[in-house]
Write a structure and sequence with these properties.
The protein has helices spanning 7-10, 18-23, 31-60, 65-72, 75-108, 114-126, 129-140, 147-152, 161-187, 190-197, 202-231, 234-240, 250-259, 263-290, 292-300. The chain is mostly helical. It is globular, with a radius of gyration of 27 Å.
Length: 301
């Protein structure tokens, strides 16, 4: 005996108000609310971000290009620029190596102390840069724990370039690691396990599998790390000694010029730092536009 199947019995019941529910599934604010919130955000950004930036360049060029160029080509200013570039050139590669190693260990492996390592990576975010500088003075200063040994071996860390590099490395350490950890965790270990099963060793696995997968997040982290390294003030101010022409980075040189009431030169050097911020912002926008999915994954966690 053949029985015809009534397909209507298998269909889910139709709710009488289902079209109405679907139309109201997305609830949006009134247009005037959206315009008001947008205007408030633009006013806030313009007042607290755009206006100070315009003010820096306006004051820097107030007395003409001749004075501006003279301030930038001053010997102390050039020494500050060179020192800033030197410190960034040392600190950023160190953080690149440390950050990638820490992110790879945390994201790809399980081990005792993993939570502690993650906490230590976030430590510079919670410690004031001034306090970080004071810690290095306590350790390596003339009256510090290792001070007598350093003096006996004619080594100087505080009030010298090594101390500035150490302080900069400390405050910039989390940027690369924190960009890579969530990105690597999101990607998982499947690609690496497949490469290892095909005979690749650890270095080949990292070079040909892991690194291509994280390259844009890595570049983003390096970009932020470099910007912070060049603009760091608090920790560097404590360990530098403010020796003109020797241990003054660009932010410290701006402070000295401003305290000496040399406002034109101070704003001229500050405009270089502001230009660095603008370049960083442009590169950041380009990276987000081209690789927004990967970068948003790393910042979601």
């Amino acid at each position: 005996m053949n029985q015809a199947t009534d397909h209507s019995l298998l269909d889910p019941p139709q709710l009488p108000f289902e079209p109405l529910l679907q139309r109201n599934a997305v609830v949006t604010e009134q247009p005037w609310v959206r315009w008001l919130l947008t205007a408030a955000a633009l006013v806030f950004l313009g007042f607290f971000l755009l206006l100070p930036l315009v003010g820096v360049f306006t004051e820097a060029l107030r007395h003409g290009l001749g004075v501006y160029w003279q301030a930038l080509t001053d010997s102390d200013a050039l020494d500050a620029v060179r020192l800033t570039l030197l410190v960034a050139a040392i600190a950023v590669p160190l953080n690149l190596v440390f950050g990638v190693a820490a992110a790879w260990a945390i994201a790809k492996f399980e081990f005792r102390g993993k939570t502690l390592l993650t906490t230590l990576i976030d430590l510079p975010f919670s410690v004031s840069p001034v306090v970080a500088g004071l810690i290095y003075v306590l350790l390596f200063g003339a009256q510090g724990w290792f001070g007598p040994w350093l003096i006996a071996h004619d080594l100087q860390i505080i009030f010298a370039v090594p101390g500035i590099v150490l302080a900069t490395v400390f405050v910039t350490f989390p940027f690369i690691a924190r960009e890579l950890i969530p990105l690597m965790q999101e990607q998982g270990n499947d690609d690496e396990m497949a490469a290892l099963s095909l005979g690749a060793n650890g270095w080949q696995c990292f070079r040909y599998v892991t690194l291509p997968n994280i390259k844009w997040g890595l570049l983003y982290g390096v970009l932020l790390c470099n910007a912070r390294a060049m603009g760091e003030f608090g920790a560097v101010s404590v360990v530098s000694g403010h020796i003109r022409g020797e241990t003054n980075t660009m932010p410290l040189h701006v402070e000295i010029l401003y305290n000496e009431y040399n406002f034109a030169a101070a704003f001229a050097v500050a405009s270089l730092l502001a230009g660095l911020a603008l370049v960083t912002l442009v590169l950041k926008s380009i990276l987000e536009a081209r690789h927004g999915g990967e970068l948003s994954t790393s910042r979601r966690h």
